[in-house]
Amino acid sequence: MTVTRVDEARLTALLGELADLLTDTVDGGASIGFLAPLGRDEALAWWRERAAAVAAGRIAVWVAHDGDRVAGTVSLALPDKPNSRHRAELVKLMVSREARGRGLGRRLLATAEKAAARTGITLLHLDTETDSPAEHLYRSAGWTRAGTIPDYAASPDGVLRPTTLYFKQVGAAATAGT
User: Helix, strand or coil for residue 132?
Assistant: First the structure.
């Protein structure tokens, strides 16, 4: 599998496949901000908005391909305030149900972490559904639990679930403590 950062043009070219990945992820029960069933038109519109954010430099997106098929994606939401340029939010880590269990989620996570560190970002943060498979991934990849918020977001089936916040120091900040 290959993982590459995409620009606005490449993201736009992949809109259909990315929309299919998003609907597959939601249909598979992942709590990534959408309720099921997620229609393809809604997924396409969401990705179109991401393309504009990529063009504006507000988000960085990586896409994983398994052969010629999109198998996963991860993004970093980049800050726009002068006092927060050292941090970014890891968002929308998605792996197709077909590609799960082969280490792709961990590879996407590592790609985003390394890219962040290369650009001078020293702190990453994220939120994820408590007790989800994603939470296990983050813990096993060295992320630190900051706390849990009850009834924070609805799962794809509409049930309110707690969310756990995580952070990870990367780059210079990660090696300063060693």
Answer: coil
Please tell me the predicted confidence (pLDDT) of residue 177.
59
Give me the amino acid identity at 46: W
Distance (Å, whole) CA 74 – CA 63: 7
Residue 98 sits at φ, ψ, to 5 deg, of: -65, -30
Q: Where are the alpha helices (DSSP H) in the chain?
A: 8-13, 15-27, 40-55, 104-118, 133-140, 172-176
Domain ranges in the chain are 2-176
- Give, for 144, the enclosing helix (H) or strand (E): strand 144-154
Confidence at residue 70, expressed as pLDDT on a 0 to 100 scale: 98
The structural architecture, per CATH, of the domain 2-176 is 3-Layer(aba) Sandwich (3.40)
In Å, how far are 30, 74, 82, 141, 146 from 92, measured between CA atoms? 10, 6, 24, 17, 19
Enumerate residue ranges in the chain where pLDDT < 70. 177-178
pTM of the predicted protein model: 0.95
Residue among 60, 88, 78 at smallest CA distance from 4 = 60
CA end-to-end distance (rounded Å), the chain: 32
pLDDT tens digit string along 56-68? 999 999 999 999 9
